[in-house]
Write a structure and sequence with these properties.
This protein has helices at residues 3-7, 33-36, 43-50, 56-67, 74-78, 104-107, 125-138, 161-170, 203-213, 286-300, 311-332, 375-387, 411-420, 429-433, 451-464, 466-470, 547-561, 568-574, 577-580, and strands spanning 86-90, 108-116, 122-124, 142-145, 151-156, 183-188, 226-231, 245-252, 256-263, 275-281, 353-356, 362-366, 372-374, 392-395, 401-406, 434-436, 480-483, 497-504, 512-519, 535-543. The protein is α+β, with helices and mostly antiparallel strands. The chain is globular and about 65 Å long.
Length: 581
């Protein structure tokens, strides 16, 4: 294949994926480079090959930042900018009923969402302070913690982007390939290298992948986005079942410590859990295995239709046996040892609470409200941590923060100051388990508001269900995931209660914001026996206004009707539909 073909980069449409049709022989080529050739079969593939997304940085710095938003080329604006973590944000005042009827340019404002890439979620207090300062100086104080360990800022002007890059890169951060048809941020265990019960520390591997391959032109034109998750912690804390490539730490009975390999997971509107390839990956070859799987996606991934341009569709057609064979024969040149599955986790993977590290110091897992932070809070947090002897922290895949290296004699005073910042290491069950996507406040694809809805629901449930939590009848968090559209950025299919934003009719005829309800989803890190997707109940929809009423009702029924030891997910899947209304 040509270097031009390999060097392109882009994102194209972020419209929802459609469910795959039943498997039939393709009547048209899928656009697989190794099967159909590299001639582009749609407009996105054309411009990705003509001028890759990585190249747009020079134009941003030398042209667009000097001449303003109106000078930006349309293909750069809606495609290549994403390779550098930039999306136009939603214009204020456009209601959710118009999301599907207006063109993208009618929905967008002249400001950007900027995604700071944080591989493994690893930050220093210096880096945190810089992000907070950028938020304050250029982003109107915005800062949202995502469930992919990034921090997103809003209200960013293109004129300010070069200075933002300068500040980030001065402390070892970047926005390189934070979006686009590229390897996105690498999820990593928030307690890598510090946990007493860790199986293997993935930090060196995550660092190697980031340094070797992020920004590499040969991997900067994938069929679509590509997500990686790596953990060596027994809680399996990186939602590995919904990533394209994942490694889960384990001990092979003969070969020792290494990883179990998973591929092909993804959600959106056509959810599919990843599958094990049954292969054991030793630490010394893990980077090459990642490169092999990523290269399979580049070379064999479907490019003709954006709605099928994810690795999960290729795996569904090939199956894990063929996928492993191609990986070994065409890309690695050797067979991987067979390996058993990693043991199921016995503890939650959000790391909330106060825990001792293996070096005798402590880490504190704290819960912001649905990931909503601010620039001033980030700066204050950096200062509070440093006063208490800590200079490191991690973001998590559950919209939480894990604060590392706290001396034992500083834990109590730190905890008090964190509470003052609204960051609790002992949050309510509902605050601990609720996550929310960006929503209609900033996202062009959103239909409903999410962050305020989440905060309101948390506050109401804390009051309404206090009798259950205080009495010990409800002791495990029930995950509430709130998403503003069908795309599942907040992982609605894997929550105990997942909410997909939509407009609902009212008796008066005017639509109102609401949600379709998914019940009983869960992943390994949520203490579920088997990872699985939630069920949808025909006609089960709830307005945003009535959300606390519904959650209270269904939680009380669960407590009343569950069997001993039964989880919410298990109960939701076995219950009659009428009980779940």
């Amino acid at each position: 294949m040509t270097q031009t073909a390999l060097a392109g980069a882009a994102a194209g449409s972020d419209r929802p994926e459609r469910p795959a049709r039943s498997t039939r022989p393709a009547t048209k080529p899928h656009g697989q480079w190794k099967v159909d050739g590299t001639a582009p079969l749609n407009a996105n593939e054309v411009w990705k090959q003509e001028d890759g997304g990585l190249s747009v940085r020079e134009r941003i710095e030398n042209n667009y930042a000097k001449h303003g938003f109106d000078s930006i080329d349309g293909t750069d604006l809606h495609g290549r900018f994403r390779w550098w973590g930039l999306y136009t944000q939603r214009k204020p005042g456009i209601d959710g009923g118009k999301t599907a009827t207006l063109e993208p340019h009618e929905l967008e404002d002249k400001y950007f969402m900027l995604r700071v890439r944080i591989d493994g979620g690893a930050l220093t207090t210096e880096q945190l302070r810089v992000i907070g300062g950028i938020s304050t100086d250029f982003g109107r104080g915005t800062a949202d913690l995502t469930d992919r360990q990034n921090i997103q800022l809003h209200w960013i002007r293109v004129e300010d982007v070069p200075e933002i890059w300068r500040r980030l890169e001065a402390v070892g951060l970047s926005t390189t390939e934070a979006c686009g048809d590229v390897p996105r941020v690498i999820l990593g265990s928030p307690v890598a290298g510090i946990a007493k019960d860790e199986i293997i520390d993935p930090t060196p591997l995550i660092r190697e992948l980031s340094e070797r391959f992020i920004g590499d032109p040969d991997l900067a034109n994938l069929p679509r986005k590509y997500k990686t998750a790596i953990t060596g912690h027994p809680s399996q804390d990186v939602v590995h079942e919904i990533n394209d490539f994942a490694l889960v730490g384990m001990v092979h009975p003969e070969l020792g410590v290494g990883y179990d390999l998973w591929v092909g997971g993804g959600l959106s509107t056509s959810a599919r859990l990843a599958e094990r390839l049954g292969a054991f990956v030793s630490p010394d070859i893990a980077a090459e295995v990642w490169l092999g799987v990523t290269s399979i996606f580049r070379d064999y991934g479907y490019r003709r239709m954006r709605t099928k341009a994810r690795l999960k569709y290729l795996l569904a057609d090939w199956g894990p046996e063929k996928f492993r064979q191609v990986l070994e024969e065409e890309y690695l040149g050797f067979r991987l040892p067979d390996g058993p599955a990693a043991p199921k986790p016995s503890a939650p993977g959000d790391h909330v609470g106060i825990h001792e590290q293996k070096d005798g110091r402590y880490y504190l897992g704290v819960a912001p409200t649905a990931g909503r932070l601010s620039g001033s809070l980030l700066v204050s947090l950096a200062e509070v941590l440093e006063r208490h002897g800590s200079h490191r922290l991690r973001t998590t895949p559950h919209q939480k923060l894990v604060l590392l290296d706290v001396p034992q004699d500083q834990v109590d005073s730190l905890n008090v100051e964190l509470e003052g910042l609204g960051l609790s290491a002992k949050p309510s069950l509902f605050r601990r388990s609720t996550i929310a996507c960006t929503g209609i406040e900033f996202c062009k694809l959103a239909i409903v508001e999410t962050k305020v809805t989440a905060a309101t629901a948390i506050a109401e449930l804390e009051k309404r269900l206090a009798d259950l939590t205080d009495s010990g009848q409800l002791v495990q968090p029930i995950a509430l995931h709130i998403n503003g559209c069908p795309n599942s950025c907040a992982r609605i299919q894997t929550a105990d209660i997942g909410l997909k934003g939509m407009m609902l009719p009212t008796p008066g005829g005017e639509p109102t914001p609401g949600f379709q309800v998914h019940l009983g989803g869960g992943l390994a890190s949520h203490e579920r026996e088997e990872a699985g997707l939630g069920r949808t109940i025909r006609g089960l929809k709830v307005t945003a206004e009535n959300l606390p009423d519904y959650v209270e009702r269904v939680v009380r029924r669960f407590v009343e009707l569950r069997t001993e030891g039964e989880t919410f997910a298990e109960w939701a899947h076995r219950s009659e539909e009428g009980v779940l209304q």
